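Quick entry between incubations.
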Amino acid sequence: MSGERRAFAVLAWVFLGGVILQVFLAGLGAFKVTDWTTHAGFGWLLGSVPLFVLLPVSLVAGLSTRTRWLTLALVVAAAIQPELARARTDSPVIAALHPVNAMLVFWLAWLVARASLRDPSRPATTAPVTSRTQPAPPSDSTP
Amino acid sequence: MTPGRGGADHRSVALAVREVGLARVLLAVGAWLFVVCVLIQIFLVGLDIFAKVDASFHRDFAYTFGWLAPALVLLSRTRGVSRRTQSLALVLLLLFAIQTVLPSLRQYLPVFGGLHTVNALAVFGVGATLARRATAEIRENPAPAP
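Done. Structure below.
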């Protein structure tokens, strides 16, 4: 596994852990154990991770197309999340989708984290062409 | 659709269900229904928080669809269902049981309130995995060995 791939895997799993922590903070807010400021503050930090960290790393880590699309979907779902909460004054019913979208963020984060470990290594683009056009030299010719 | 064509469709569906086994079809359908109910349940929490809708809707709805969890365990104990899928159904029942108890436990330790939402993630994740696996097993192995 290359350094970029390893970095992506670590970041993806850390982000998933962050989502679980964020949901825990929401539970503390909902049951009035703490106020909502911790959840809101951590949400702004966490929400920027897919766009500014995961997506750029996914582009250089040599991941499969499926994993890169999943990461992009995660970016979109995470970007929508604070906007849904912000809609609470104008349209509370739309804002009620905030926890539903949290499930989507969790599910996508889980799929991305799992794919970061399972993704097959992308073959070098020149290797198959070379092997097809130029057969490997016989073993006795190698030093 | 003509009546004759519709009749043929019904026969083909009935034949497919007989081949796959009614219990396995009900397991997959029930698991997906459970996932949808979990999402509705979470939407009801959102309505409680953001639209000040009575929290009793959220509480009562849990008892409305909660019977699905033990039903899925029973349905998973049929021929053609893998051991792993059976375990998932059992884990789902366990998580759901914990979920119903966690809110009342917060009077002893407030942190249990936070765990109620985290456990909801687990209920959703295990439910969705069970639904996907049950569906995939029907696709991969439509007629289980006798």
